[in-house]
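Protein: Cytochrome c oxidase assembly protein COX11, mitochondrial
Species: Pediculus humanus subsp. corporis
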Amino acid sequence: MYTKYLFLIKNCQYTYNGNFRLKSSFVINNGANILFSNNRQYSQKIQYPRNLDFIEKKKSVRNYAVAIGILTLGVSFAAVPLYRIFCQSTGYGGSVRHDIGGEKIQNLKIDRSRPIKVKFNSDVGSKMSWQFKPQQKDLLVYPGETALAFYTATNPTDVPITGISTYNILPFNAAPYFNKIQCFCFEEQQLNPNEQVDMPVFFYIDPEFCDDPQMENINEIILSYTIFFEIFNKEYMWQYN
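Structure follows.
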């Protein structure tokens, strides 16, 4: 009996935490189960750091995914104001003229030799529950002539929802000549449950449109609005959980 224990002591040694690990794979009598048991225990202790590395890598991937999600959400909230600044500074998508007074509008020279068909389009963001559409399919206008169009927005839900819209003009090179005197773009609009509103767009096409050689073959302009979900009343947030 003493010989058996002496053999075990010689062929095993302490690990860093006080457990035995096997120095050799000798098997003797009834000590075989003890030796193999210690061998499996040692194998598990070797694999532990590898499993720990895998867990750390998994945590890193998860953290990166969360960071990307937060960044995407931030960009989506910043997209509308950044697009507004871009349009105001470049004239892309048409411009809103706040410096147009009644006298200046009356003094615009109308060129009736170039009728332009203005078509109206509407789109709704993926998370927006509103119904949004133009009241007219198109209007025939002359450069220098003011025109009034309307879009209709409806909130068919049971909660107040705030939306905000962006716009663009097609073709792009006609955008600098498309001037909006009044519109609802880049402005937050809250609709109460089942509320419907008419949104006006007061605009004109600059008479210089006719003097631009690049506009010679352009007889149609598309005004397109897209309305996005902005926020809903926090008092009703529980209904979405």
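Remarks: The two ends are 69 Å apart (CA to CA).
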